[in-house]
Amino acid sequence: MKSLLAGCTISGAALALSLLASTAARADEISIVTGLVGNDLGLLQEQLKSFEDKTGHTVKVVSLPPSSSDQFSQYRLWLAAGNPDIDVYRTDVVWAPQLADQFIDLTPYTEDVIDEYFPSIIRSQTVDGKLVALPWYATIPGLYYRTDLLEKYGKDVPKTWDEMTTTAREIMDAERADGNASMWGFLFQGAPYEGLTCDGLEWLVSSGGGNIVEADGEISVNNPNAAAALERAKSWIGTISPPGTLSYKEEDTRGIWQLGNAVFMRNWPYAYALGEQDDSAIKGKFDVAPLPAGENGESAATLGGFNLAVSKYSEHPDAAVELVKYLTSPEAQKYRVMYNSNAPTAVALYEDPEVQAKQPFALRWEDSLETAVSRPSNVTKSKYNEVSSLFWTAAYNTLSGNGSAQDNLEELELKLYQLRGNGW
């Protein structure tokens, strides 16, 4: 009996070594490219370590600047060259129509999991029946506000842009008179990049100024409501918003906000978890509300978020798909939500008791995911990037005092008609 047991032990060890060798033989080295803000890199590396332990694959992270505009430009260069060195791309929600031809169709790989995600986000990543990318996490911006300052001065959370402007100015002036010379009223993203398209679209839609290009392809941006919305934003520069706003992106505004030097801030959900960390000057002193409404009485928030796509030039497509499905799975999303504040794209997590207890903020946006304003990427298709660039340029020129909003929108309208030609 003893020799038989010994034989079984030896056979078991041999089998284990055989399995390890088989796993090693199938293991691939793959890469994922992504832009990173806040604590994104640390969270991603922890999840990749778990993936590597489970699969035997190794994953290299290629990081790019946080600006989605810069990322898109680099992506196009790599994909146009047929670069095989990048297997998985983190993509913005608006890029699917522009990059669809460069990514593999995930439809046959995801039949077992497709029902786990919000249908609206799956639709946004489907082009001509091809599933271009799987949803990783969603983002809906909000109005961050200092609860302590509003309470101190007896102010309500503003419901409209005009109310926000007045409250921001009153509290900013009072705080400065009280010795805080660094206090500002409102922070937003004013640099000429995709972030300004998101901010500007919210100003327009909430004020009845249209969606730049409508769902039927009509160019609607040149109208009085849109011009008034941009002029109001222009009035913030140097009054309630720092002059440096003209160069601010998300992390610039978060840095000032987290030091305690602003009353209000427009930003994405990721800033919430960071604001509640122990080294934050505003921990426990802020909350988030829907963005203010304009003249038409509606709040508008641009749909943001990121997805994962597999390059058709990947030399390891099976391993790349495996990574995409792992990172976008409800289990992996839950881990990310528990340690960050991005909204999950897996429907079941909105009913998860642990998530509800630890990160209730991340779950506030369930209804907003179905009603958020979409940038006109699906209608303008491969021309969206140029549409966005033309729009943010017109908005930036207005904010910086280079022409009136009316003049800039008239010029923008002309350029959009030229870009559209015979059709989008």
The helix content, as a percent range, equals: 40-55%
Q: What's the arrangement of strands in the largest beta sheet?
A: 2-1-3-11-6-12
Mean pLDDT: 91
Order of helices and strands: HEHEHEHHEEEEHHEHHHEHEEHHEHHHHH
Main pleated sheet? 6 strands, mixed
> Gap between N and C termini, in Å?
79 Å
Helix-strand makeup class: alpha/beta
Gyration radius over CA: 24 Å
Please tally the helical runs, counting DSSP H or I stretches of 4 or more residues. Answer: 18
Coarse shape: globular
Strand content: 5-15%
Enumerate the spans where pLDDT stays under 50 for 5 or more consecutive residues. 1-25
Total E-strand runs: 12
Walkthrough of the structure:
The protein has 424 residues and is α/β, with parallel strands linked by helices. It has helices spanning 2-26, 40-55, 68-80, 96-99, 119-124, 147-152, 161-177, 194-206, 224-236, 250-258, 270-275, 317-327, 330-339, 353-358, 368-371, 377-380, 384-399, 405-420, and strands spanning 29-35, 58-64, 88-92, 126-127, 130-131, 134-139, 142-146, 184-187, 262-267, 286-289, 304-310, 343-344. The strands form three sheets. It has a six-stranded mixed beta sheet with strand order 2-1-3-11-6-12. Strand 1, helix 2 (40-55) and strand 2 form a beta-alpha-beta unit.
List the helices and strands and how they pair.
Layout: H1 2-26, E1 29-35, H2 40-55, E2 58-64, H3 68-80, E3 88-92, H4 96-99, H5 119-124, E4 126-127, E5 130-131, E6 134-139, E7 142-146, H6 147-152, H7 161-177, E8 184-187, H8 194-206, H9 224-236, H10 250-258, E9 262-267, H11 270-275, E10 286-289, E11 304-310, H12 317-327, H13 330-339, E12 343-344, H14 353-358, H15 368-371, H16 377-380, H17 384-399, H18 405-420
